[in-house]
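User: Predict the complex.
Assistant: Input components as received:
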Amino acid sequence: MINKNELKYIQSFAHKKHWAEESVFIIEGPKMMEELMASNFVIRQAYATKEWIETQPYKPHYVTEVADFELDKLTQLQKANQVIALVEKKQIKGPIQLKGKMTLVLDGIQDPGNLGTIIRTADWFGLDQIVVSADTASCYNPKVVQSTMGSILRVDVVVADLPEFIQSAKMPIYGAVLEGKSIQTTVLAKEGILIIGNESKGIRPPILSLITDPITIPKYGNAESLNAAVATGIILSNWQH
Amino acid sequence: MINKNELKYIQSFAHKKHWAEESVFIIEGPKMMEELMASNFVIRQAYATKEWIETQPYKPHYVTEVADFELDKLTQLQKANQVIALVEKKQIKGPIQLKGKMTLVLDGIQDPGNLGTIIRTADWFGLDQIVVSADTASCYNPKVVQSTMGSILRVDVVVADLPEFIQSAKMPIYGAVLEGKSIQTTVLAKEGILIIGNESKGIRPPILSLITDPITIPKYGNAESLNAAVATGIILSNWQH
């Protein structure tokens, strides 16, 4: 059973003002819930149907049982999926650690689905952090959270002043551009920064000028550009090669 | 000026029943229009604002000038973008030609955005045809058309009985699966078939058994799977390598 205030509170996560400002974000579905319970994120509250609770060895203290019709009112998905949890956003403290790894930098990725797919792709290739410009879509947008398919629980997304951050990094700064060195003949260093730009404008000039190693995915056909998530996947695949 | 019947007709393309059955599909925006005019597709009718017409050397015979408020009523985009055209669907005749090229096969791709991105990615890597199962999203879904960013005009999408089609192909049948030969150590033949499966179920059993060369994108992190369009891009990038 859920009370009116809780219902209103969770429904308000459909609005940007709310999910941007709250200290918690929402995850939905048994698969995401399983990964959440295995992570070190703090679950503030969860609402689950009897069906979900019965799959657990015991009912966790933070779970309130709700009826199917109640979950239908709470969900932001097209179809409610057994469980909804309110999770505390991670507080990332101190300077960003760059040693010995590749850090992905996103300059103005606007589309929530694209951002979610990029986070998931970064996770596949073993990256554990992404640094984003303030105008990149928020990783707490419910659409982003869902499209990461759980990777949001493993990859830290940090908002930073990109020029300042990039200038302080003493390592190769790779940038995906239309005219650079072919990724097929470039061996990417294990430690570095990889910048992916906005879907239509690419990497913006102040950041473009900080790139030490412009790289390109060779084109064999006629499409004008590649989707940002696809480009990220191809470059990270070459990096891990 | 546009009359009521035309208005109703174009608005009806918002509904699947309509865009699936009509012999025309809709494209929008000056960029897509430019590529359309350079293609061999037949434009049955177009509606454009004065702003767009003034960018042209002359007003094409198929263009009706409309006011901004009229275009706003016609558009399927969030914001109307100067021009909307009704384009005749291509009739693809005769058997599918497989000689000397890679043909992409999609087994049940459901998400329109994913399908559009896959078509665009195939175009980037020089593929000119994709064969899809009947339950794959329609390439004439307005969301798919827009997300191809013009590639729908260059890549043929053919619906076929996949098991029958694949069985008739005498060439390597590559399939993207979770446990196959690493694409990093596999040299893909220039001529072949590449099968990409459904977003959550992968390639289905009757088709799985027809794969001669199962291939895998090695995983270095913890994501459970890669997005279908990202996987397609990584494999095609390796194929062109």
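Residues 4-88 of chain A form a domain with the 60s Ribosomal Protein L30; Chain: A; fold (CATH 3.30.1330.30).
Let me know if you want any component modeled separately.
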